[in-house]
Amino acid sequence: MLAAGAAVFLAMFTGLVVTTTLLLSQQNQTVVEVAETATALEEPSLPDLTNAVTRQEMSLLQSETEEAIPAIAAPVLPQSAEVEPEAPAPIAVAAATRTPLRLGVAHRYRVPSCVDYLDTLVKTTTVNFPLGSDIPVAADMIRARNIATAVKTCDEVKVVVEGHSDRRGNAQLNMDLSWFRAQSVIDQLQREGYDISALQPRGFGATRPVNFAGTISGEAENRGVQFTLAPRSAPATVSLSGN
User: Fold this and answer.
1) Which residues, in sequence order, are CB contacts of 126 under 8 Å at separation 6+?
2) In angstroms, rounded to a whole number, what is the distance separating the alpha carbons of residues 126 and 202?
3) Closest CA to 208 of 126, 138, 141, 133
């Protein structure tokens, strides 16, 4: 009796399970079909619509721009023509002429370049002496050596070595002292090995001062030896007088 009841209950339970399984299977199939239909009928999302509109607007804007702006042709550069440089105009060079130099009163001749140099040198050279002495200042002898060297190349001129004294003391003694000063410069150059054949001493005493102030420093400027140029043919003056 119990066994029969159990068999009936098991058969009923099995039928219930089968029926439930079938119902669930049908329900799942219906849900899938509904989802597929909804997917097929789903409207496009907002980003897709935005992208589509943007692409359409850009395409339309590009076509309008191409119609509004005409094509610009590339500029054609003209071919450069080579231009031959003009030859510089010849510069007229005037022939160099030498200006005659007047030495003293009666001498005029053409001036070679060595005389130009000597003329500048003698005008800027002075050898100074201490008071009452015929021994030249050693530093002043440098330019005197330059004069002795330059006059060797100038056969047309000689150098007159002019001695001077200040205005104090006896006039005759000053005249003699001025000549000794000029001779002292020549003797110093000779001892050093310079050719003195174109050097001529002459004394002027106090007759040609360069400073008239009468001060100690002014009279010191008057004690010295200066140099001038003279033609080689001029007679030599070797006396102690200032004439």
Assistant:
1) 140, 224, 225, 226
2) 15
3) 126
